[in-house]
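Subject: Protein entry, chain in single-letter code together with its fold tokens

Area: Proteins and the way their chains fold up in space.

Attached in line: The record itself begins immediately under this heading.
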Amino acid sequence: MITSKLKPTKKHLAELSAENIIKVLLLALFSAVLTVTILWGSEFSAEKAAGAYCIIILLLGILYKDLIRYNPDIKKGYRLILLTGILLTGNLAIGRMFHYILEGFTRWIGTVDPGLLVYSVPLATGSMLIALLVDIHTAIIFTIITSLISGLWINSPLYAIFVFASGLTAAFGVIRCKKRSAIWRAGLSVSLISVLTVLLIFFFKEQLFSIDPLVAASAAFINGIAVTTMVSALLPLFEYSFKITTDISLLELVDLNQPLMRELLVEAPGTYHHSIIVGTLAETAAEAVGVNPLLARVSAYYHDIGKIKMPDYFIENQIASVSKHEKLAPRMSSLILLSHVKEGVELAKKYKLPQAIIDIIQQHHGTSVQTFFYQKAKEQHDAATPLTEEDFRYPGPKPQSRVAALVLMADAVEAASRVLTDTTPARVSLLVDRIINHCFIDGQLDNCELTFKDIREIRSHFVYLLTSMYHKRINYPGFEIANENTPKKPAKAPATEQ
């Protein structure tokens, strides 16, 4: 029996209908733009236009179904649909304009066949951009759709093969792109594969031994250069417009000379050092579980920037032997600690950090309890004043991604390891087990899609790194410290013969 809570209300049905109508309208709009693009300049025929429109709607429908399956977040809004549609239509529209200009130029010169210059049209631009902004799977499907539509435009299956080969090369060339120079290397690969594909096309057409393949190959080589130039120019624009964080933009933030990181070093040196270690832990674990290690590292660097506002109230920055919390009520101390998350989010927005990092700053404590101050409050509890555990919980939300969960666990493990007096591998392993188990039992990992296998990998990497960090060193002769309050004379230098 279905309860009333599970029954779809009229409001839900209206919202669902509105979303579907908007998606259908977007599909129709993008299909219309693509139809006009591929038929521009040719003799108009209503039957041909209707046929092209229906074919493009079919192709875009397949693309949309694939996006829904492999990118469930598409249901939460229209950003990914708009991005993919704009890249697809814009890519072909710019390519069509590029070809129109070159075609007019060659006809003006009169010495080159305009049909050969179609191989210089940089349609691989869209494939490279979608690989950088979304993911490689979407880029592959995007390339297939682009190649089919381009074959419809030129009315040539061989040109569709050319676009497919150059597009896939562009997409695979920027997987895990860590530097902007990687875009140029990918562009060079596009040029080489484009030249090879053109030569194979003319070999298939039995026209390899003529002047035409040389002209077409030259145009194909220019294709890669044009792709690189356009991607370099358009990538920052799409990153800013759609609030997307790529590895290239993350690389700029991993630089420790960033103003915010320099301020953290000066104002809260203990927190700075803690963040660096958390970054190392999170990055190594991220590589083990298959999430973006660069995002994990950068997020860990910035997760505690809110402590800049009141650094002396956090133990890693306290130099004096007496803590400032000694004179404060537990509730007040709790509020100060809670505030560093809110302050961190505000600082991140002020310095225009990517939304992915802001989310992790907000989620890096989840809804965990400040156990120390809660226990202290219980000891001082007055029966007349109500006291609940919820008063000492962070506001959350809980980690919504695997990267956020990694930062949460790395933060807790690194902080707890500071109190270990015995840093043997067994003690470190026991500590890591307790911290991760507590996070799991407390429900902090409920929304982040980590598997038990992932947790096992994370645990083993945390133990290995922490054990390595807290290694023992030998005592150097003359520098032993038997009593910290008694200065030790340095070792005498051996007497030399006169």
